[in-house]
Amino acid sequence: MSHKADEHGVLPVAGGTADYSSPEVYALLTRQPVPEGGSRVEPCLLSDLPPIGYVLLDCAGLRGVPYGLHKFAREGGALPEGYPAAFVDFVLWLTAQDPAKRGSAQELLGHRWLQQQAGGVWQ
């Protein structure tokens, strides 16, 4: 079931798979404190962006690193070396602990890594 955000972008309910949840949704679902650098905010449209970054990292092989995705998402672990710089920048923007530091979906479409993958289609 989907829910419409209010005029401030706040969603009435939050849910999902905890491993792929944004820091603020994970804290809400698990009743854990928000990680350092994050903020306790109501789930909002920006809460949907970190899961995209986590799925990209999963597809890029971080799931195969023992506790790699969990450490990155929940403990602020570093990404292993070898990922292209533009990819890392894109993922870090998507997964910022503080929702205010995440780009909007429209801004993210203009990111250089995504543009490289799409051949400039989304400019």
Automatic annotation (TrEMBL):
Protein kinase domain ranges (all copies): 1-114
Superkingdom: Eukaryota
GO molecular function: ATP binding; protein kinase activity
InterPro entries: Kinase-like_dom_sf, Prot_kinase_dom
Name of this chain's protein: Protein kinase domain-containing protein
Organism of this sequence: Chlamydomonas schloesseri
